[in-house]
Amino acid sequence: MKLDPSIIARIQFAFTVSFHIIFPTMSIGLASFLAVIEALWLKTKKPVYLEIYKFWLSIFAMGFGIGVVTGIVLSFEFGLGFARFAQMAGPAIGPLIALEVLTAFFLEAGFLGIMLFGLHRVGPKLHFFATCMVAIGTLLSASWILSANSWMQTPAGVAIHDGHLTVLSWRHVLVNPSWLYRLPHMLTAAYLTASFMVAGVGAWYLLKGKHQHFARRTLALGTAFGTVLIAGQVFIGDILYGTMLKYQPSKMQAAEGFWEKQSQSPAPYYWFIVPDQNNQRNRFQLGIPYLGSIWLTHSLGGRVEGLRNTPRDLQPRMGMVFYAFRIMYGLAMVMFAVGVASLWLRFRGKLFSSRWFLWILVFMTPSGIIATLAGWYVAETGRQPWVIYGILRTVDAISPVPAQALLSTLIAFVCVYAVFITAFLVFAFRIIRRGPAEAPPHAEASGSVKNAFRPYVLDSPERLVNSNITQRS
Amino acid sequence: MGNSNQLHRLQSMTAALVGVFFFHAIIGVFGLRLAIAGLAAFVLGAVVVCVAFPAQGAES
After folding, report:
1. Which residue of B12, B26, B30 is in closest CB contact with A235?
2. What's the predicted TM-score (pTM) here?
3. Could you read off the pLDDT tens digit of each residue along chain A, which spans 473 residues?
4. Which of A121, A136, A254, A445 could be disulfide-bonded to A321 (CB atoms 3.0-4.6 Å)?
5. Complex ipTM tops 0.90
């Protein structure tokens, strides 16, 4: 069997980037969640917030570490697997990735140590500042990467002469047409991921009858954040849908599962299709009547444009885009329903005692990660056959590397990443099973950086805690 | 008991319908202005409910 290097290079990148995105999504969301929790702790001095902080800090740290390591791999893959892409897009996206390192990574690297290990070594306010800087670092990182990826989706501010790309306007490269909507969409997805993770773990403890106080507080916070965020996400998603319909109509045509140039009126909303790309039709389709017109055209009888409006050689694979979009959108609807139900149960005073709802929250724990992955599949598979939309095709971007070399590195990635994910899951479940450690009521340090260099702090944090209590009393 | 159950069921259905309405408003079915208004009203309502009902036993 002859192996196609372009297919293997794409599978390799799809695998490594899919694995990677799980961890930044968690760490972006959890970093901001930790900043909010620490602010609440500083404001109220309630020990439960410190307990929540310490508990989620451990999981954040593991996710952050894996996210950084797996992210570095992607930069190498640009050069090794997609050399033509790196060569062409380098002038535009190279500086964006460099700026991510110079701003976000340096900021995170500078304050991460204080955030992780400095709670007893620096003052609470400085520690809170460090947490905020790490959270801002994750936001900056997301901004640069989304800017680079959005430029690949909707390239702007460049000119091409003899196959070489020249940047005409950095402002247009940075603030390209889809970035303004894709960035908040991704950030909200990350915050939703953290909210549902936090609420899910709280619900699990309540179902098991363990760590009640911690569980109630985390569940109350997780559902509150999740409810507000999902409403915003649905709104941003709809605006982004309209933007992509304008700039990448083929992606949205594939996402809706219609082939005809104009669908029937009223158009149904398909939930299940068996697409036949070769014959440009669906072998089978199942949908809800009228809903396609209502949701997609905002009228009762509107028609939806199908994929035949795009020339056949410029069409993405409908099946991938359609089902990725359905998973993302379906999960968003479930999240919205969970949010409304949480408000209702909160109003009736049954948020912590409705076991059916707690079980739903437990099952929804990974929902943010799954929805984010599905969203990225829509973005990336829907852009095909282009790697830079309208400029460079994916098949033309591949390096002249033997298929065997790509296959062997793909197998190596699968093996190494399997170890990563196993280690992460084992340790995360161990932390969850162990539960939040009993946090002392005054675990903060004296408020002076000098204490960090005093040997007794390193020897005995308890002594510092005791001295704090004495000073306060 | 029967009346209480029926009332509870009616209230739950009303809450679900309100949720469906807000979802459709926010995704722009009734236009952009109503989408923005729907989003603002939903977020405000959610914040009010979360602040007014911090959930039983959350504080101790």
Report:
1. B26
2. 0.89
3. 678 888 999 999 999 999 999 999 999 999 999 999 999 999 998 999 999 999 999 999 999 999 999 988 988 888 888 999 998 998 999 999 999 989 998 999 899 999 998 888 888 899 999 999 999 999 999 999 999 999 999 999 999 888 788 999 999 999 999 999 999 999 999 999 999 999 999 999 999 999 999 999 999 999 999 999 999 999 999 999 999 999 999 999 999 999 999 988 899 999 999 999 999 999 999 999 999 999 998 888 889 999 999 999 999 999 999 999 999 999 999 999 999 999 999 998 889 989 999 999 999 999 999 999 999 999 999 999 999 999 999 999 998 888 899 999 999 999 999 999 999 999 999 999 988 865 444 444 444 545 544 444 444 444 444 444 444 43
4. A254
5. no
Task: Tell me which amino acid residue B46 is.
Answer: A
Task: Residue A401: name the closest of A171, A83, A32 by CA.
Answer: A83
Place of tokens 């932390």: A431
What are the φ and ψ backbone dihedral angles of A284, each rounded to 5 degrees?
Answer: -150, 145
Distance (Å, whole) CA B59 – CA A287: 46
Give the burial string for A401-424 (b: 16+ CB within 10 Å, else e).
beeeebbebbeebeeebeebeeeb
Candidates B35, B36, B54; nearest CB to A220? B54
Cβ distance B42 to A231 less than 8 Å, yes or no, reads yes
Chains A and B form CB pairs within 8 A to the count of 80
Residues 18-57 on B with a CB inside 8 Å of A are 18-19, 22-24, 26-31, 35-36, 39, 42-43, 45-47, 49-50, 53-57
Nearest residue, CB atoms, B56 vs list A231, A333, A352? A352
